[in-house]
Design goal:
globular; Rossmann fold; single chain; 45% helix; binds NADPH dihydro-nicotinamide-adenine-dinucleotide phosphate; binds ligand LV4SOB2L; 9 helices; one-carbon metabolism; alpha/beta; seven-stranded parallel β-sheet
C-alpha cells in the first residue's frame, strides 16, 4: 500500500463502506469517518483502513474532525463527501433545527473540509487529485417528504461548480447524483417494486454502480465541475 489516502466520509456502511473496501482491494490507502462505533468497523481496521470518528451535525464537530484528519495524514489523493442523513421533514418546533442539521452535514461539512483540506490535496505527489460530492437525483426534482434533505443536497451540488472553478486546474471537483441504489432495512417488496418502476432500468442495482462511477472520476483527467447521474434513467419514465 503506497501513496496518499482517499478519504470517504460516512464510510462505515452501505455505499461508503463498499467503496472503501473496493479501493482497498485495489491497494489504495483509505481513511473513513464514522459516527457510530460498531463491530463491522473492526473488519475495516483489520484491512488497514483508518477509521476516524466524526459527527458533522455541529460546526465544532466538523472542525474537530479536520484537526484529527490533519494529525493523521499530511496528504490526500481524494476526498469523497458521502456522509449523509436521509432524515424526513418534521413539522413543529423541530423543523428549523432539523433543517440546520442537514445543512451542516450536507453543505457546511463539505465546504469547510474542502477549504481547510486543500493543503492536504496540494501535498499529494500524484498527478490527479479529486473531490467527489455524493448528491441525489432529487436535487433536480425536489421531494415532498424530504424537502430539507433535497435542498441541502442541492446546495452541495452547487458547491461542486464553485469548488471546481476555484480549484482548477490542480484539483478536479465533481458530483455523483444517485437514485435508489440500495434498499433500507425494513423496505418491503411492495416498496421495492414501486422503486424499480421509477427508473427506465427497472432495477435496484446495489453499491457497485457507485464504485464504478467513483472510479471513473478518480481515473479521468479531463472531467471537472459536472454531476454524473446514476439513476437508471429516471428522466425517461
Ligand atoms: N442509498 C441510496 O439509494 C442513495 C444514496 N444517495 C447518497 O449516497 C450517499 C451514500 O448513501 P448511503 O450509503 O445510503 O448513506 P447512509 O444513509 O448509509 O449514510 C452514510 C453515512 O453517513 C453517516 N452520517 C450520518 N449522519 C452523520 C453526521 N451527523 N455526521 C457524520 N456522519 C454522519 C452515517 O454514519 P454512521 O452510520 O456511523 O452513523 C452513515 O454511515 C449519501 O450521500 C446518500 O445521500 C443518494 C441517493 C440514493
Ligand atoms: N443518506 C442517505 N440518502 C438516501 C438514502 C439513504 O438510505 N441514505 N436513501 C435514499 C432512497 O433509497 C431513495 O433513493 C429512494 O427512496 C435516498 N437518499
Amino acid at each position: 500500500m503506497s501513496g496518499s489516502p482517499i478519504l470517504i466520509t460516512g464510510g462505515a456502511q452501505r455505499l461508503g463502506r463498499h467503496c472503501a473496501e473496493r479501493l482497498r482491494d485495489d491497494d489504495h490507502p483509505v481513511i473513513i469517518s464514522y459516527r457510530r462505533e460498531r463491530p463491522e468497523l473492526d473488519a475495516l481496521r483489520e484491512r488497514g483502513i483508518v477509521t476516524l470518528p466524526a459527527d458533522f451535525s455541529t460546526e465544532a464537530g466538523i472542525l474537530d474532525f479536520i484537526a484529527r484528519l490533519k494529525a493523521e495524514t499530511g496528504s490526500l489523493r481524494a476526498i469523497v463527501h458521502n456522509a449523509s442523513d436521509w432524515a424526513p421533514d418534521v413539522t413543529g418546533p423541530q423543523a428549523g433545527s432539523n433543517f440546520e442539521r442537514l445543512f451542516r452535514i450536507h453543505m457546511l461539512a463539505p465546504y469547510l473540509i474542502n477549504l481547510q483540506c486543500r493543503e492536504l490535496l496540494d501535498a499529494c505527489g500524484e498527478p490527479q487529485r479529486d473531490i467527489v460530492h455524493l448528491t441525489d437525483y432529487v436535487v433536480r426534482k425536489g421531494s415532498r417528504k424530504h424537502a430539507a434533505y433535497a435542498a441541502t443536497k442541492a446546495g452541495l451540488d452547487n458547491l461542486t461548480l464553485s469548488f471546481a472553478a476555484m480549484y482548477a486546474p490542480d484539483i478536479q471537483v465533481n458530483a455523483i447524483a444517485p437514485a435508489m441504489i440500495m434498499l433500507n432495512e425494513g423496505d418491503d417488496e411492495a416498496y421495492a417494486e414501486k422503486a424499480r418502476a421509477k427508473s427506465a432500468m427497472r432495477m435496484i442495482p446495489g453499491p457497485g454502480v457507485i464504485y464504478q462511477s467513483l472510479r471513473y472520476l478518480l481515473d479521468n483527467r479531463y472531467v471537472t465541475g459536472v454531476t454524473l447521474p446514476v439513476d437508471g434513467g429516471r428522466h425517461l419514465v
